[in-house]
Design brief:
The chain is of the alpha/beta class. Helices cover 45% and strands 15% of the residues. The chain is globular. It comes from Geotalea uraniireducens.
């Protein structure tokens, strides 16, 4: 089956991973999976590994409008959504749109701002709209929030509440690049200026076409639905987990598995697609029991995967 715009999307991934984000192919790929699935991405890692650079490069390569929110402890919800300003000349209030009204919105160090401000993103991420002073404004399509988060044990951070975490379809780290690549990065210095000169590699219509193709042309069989359900059900019964993956999380696993199959060139989902995305999509949705809080959620979910029989397709 023909998969519209797949080669174009793969070209974006390859270009970014080869020239601008070397050694970060998985993070680039998961960012694209989030975009194609209509979800949002949470990048969690220590500072200085390229989280912000990934967001900038992705927006530039896709030719999408870009907005940035630098989170601080005194950031207000209106700094994200916008606010009404009185225009004396026209004798009326005019709405000044905030950075949320862009295709790609980078929310940098999201856990450095208060939960009240974090919650300003909930409606935008879930409903693709913003309500300010009783008026609802639609957001552009495609729409992708990329939030970066520092480890919660660092000074001045506020852990994201579960309701906010659940809005992120994918969570991914960046990780250190291989030794040879990191040495080349050290020698070459920052690539921010190079990214600014990167010409768009796709049109907005190409992204929307790819998203539609994934919804309509990638087949998810009943066996794979049963497999996904078995995974989420196992998380709800595990002794180390206080609260397992929700139905929304299961839907996210199905949608991202379809996007992964699309990138792999298949018109149907196989168990390997589910395995490839499971930890990134389901790990951050787990709420661990008190005695198990030190466990790595992604590793725990991968361990659960090994206990689930893999269906034959």
């Amino acid at each position: 089956m023909d998969l519209p715009k797949r080669d174009t999307i793969l070209h974006v991934i390859d270009t970014l991973a080869s020239n601008y984000l070397k050694g970060k192919i998985r993070a680039v790929r998961m960012a694209m999976v989030a975009l194609l699935s209509g979800g949002h991405l949470l990048l969690e890692d220590i500072p200085g590994l390229g989280k912000t650079t990934l967001a900038l490069a992705l927006a530039q390569a896709l030719g999408l409008s870009f907005g940035r929110v630098q989170c601080t402890s005194d950031l207000l919800p209106s700094d994200i959504t916008g606010l009404s300003i009185y225009n004396r000349e026209e004798n009326r209030f005019s709405f000044l749109r905030g950075p949320i009204f862009n295709n790609v919105v980078l929310v940098d160090e999201i856990n450095r701002t208060m939960p009240k401000t974090q919650s300003a993103l909930l409606e935008a991420m879930e409903e693709r709209r913003v309500t300010v002073e009783g008026t609802t404004y639609p957001l552009p399509e495609p729409f992708l929030v990329i939030a970066t988060q520092n480890p919660v044990e660092q000074v001045g951070t506020y852990p994201l509440p579960e309701s906010q975490l659940d809005r992120f379809m994918v969570r991914s780290g960046i990780g250190y690049p291989p030794e040879a690549i990191e040495k080349a990065i050290i020698k070459g210095g920052s690539i921010r200026d190079e990214i600014k000169t990167l010409n768009p590699l796709v049109a907005v219509g190409d992204i929307l076409t790819a998203q539609q193709a994934i919804k309509e042309k990638i087949y998810l069989s009943e066996k794979l639905v049963d497999y996904i359900y078995a995974i989420v059900a196992a998380t709800r019964q595990h002794k180390a987990i206080a609260s397992g993956i929700s139905t929304r999380g299961a839907i996210s696993m199905a949608e991202t598995a379809k996007a992964h199959a699309y990138l792999e060139g298949r018109s149907y989902v196989i168990p390997e697609d589910v395995k490839a995305i499971a930890a990134s999509v389901g790990g951050h949705r787990l709420i661990l029991s008190l005695e198990s809080e030190s466990y790595d959620k992604g590793e725990l979910l991968n361990a659960i995967l090994h206990t689930i029989p893999v269906p034959l397709v």
